[in-house]
Predict the 3D structure of the following.
Amino acid sequence: MWNQLQTDDYEGMLAETVLMRGNGGNRVHAYMSRPLGKGPFPGIVLIPHMPGWDEINREIARRFTQHGYVAICPNIYESFGHGQPGEIAMKAREGGGVSDDSVMEDCKGALDYLASLPYSSGKAGVIGMCSGGRHAFLAACKVSGFHAAVDCWGGRVVMAKEDLSPSNPVAPIDLTPQLACPLLGIFGNDDQFPTPDQVDLQEAELKKYGKDYTFHRYDGAGHGFWSYDREAYRPVQAMDSWEKVLEFFGRHLK
C-alpha cells in the first residue's frame, strides 16, 4: 500500500528503454522498470494515453516498481515515427489514431516480454488511463494471460455505431462477455469522456455477464485527475484511487 514502507528495508530499481516484439512482429521501444533482486516479481503492462508515450508514463512505471512490480510501457505510437511525445501524438491524431489491433499486438508483445524474464513470477496485470484505459479493457477481453486489469477513465468503451471505424471496428463494451480477469474501474463523476451515464452502461454489462469487477467513482473529479501537470489534478481523489489500484493489483498479482 502507498507509503507503508519499512524504513530499514533495502530498495533499488533499474529503469531503461528496451526493445520488444510488437505489432506485426516489428521491434517496438518500451520503457521498463524493475526492482533489483532475483524476484520473482509480478508484472504490469502500462498502456500510454493519447498525449503520447510521455514522461508521466515513465513516472507511473517507476511508482509500480517502487511497490514491487516489473512495469513495461510499450510505445504504441511507434509506427508514427519518433520525436517529442506531443509531436508524435499529433501525427497519430492526423493519421486517424492507432488501431486497436496494433495496440493489442503491442500488449501481447509486452506480456510475452515480461514472461521471458528470469525474475518474472508469471503473473501480470494491465492498466491504462484515458485512451489507455479503453485499451486496458480491450486487452483484458482479447489478450490471453492477464490476471487483473485497471481501466482509469477510459473513454469510448461505449461507442455508437457511427463512431466505429477501421481502426476501432468494435465497441469494447460489446466484448464484455470475453472479459477474462478481474477489472477495477476508476472514474470521475465530472468526466464527460466517459460520462457517468456511459459508466453506468458499462457497469450494467459487467453485471449482466457476472464479471468480477469493482468501480470507484469520485465526486469533484473529472478526466485525467491523476495528471498533476494539469488543472484537472485532484490530489485527494488521485491518492485514494492510487491506494485502491495498488491494493487491487496486490490482491490479484502478489
Summary: The longest strand covers residues 120-129. Helices lie at 55-66, 85-94, 100-116, 131-142, 196-208, 235-253. The mean pLDDT is 97.
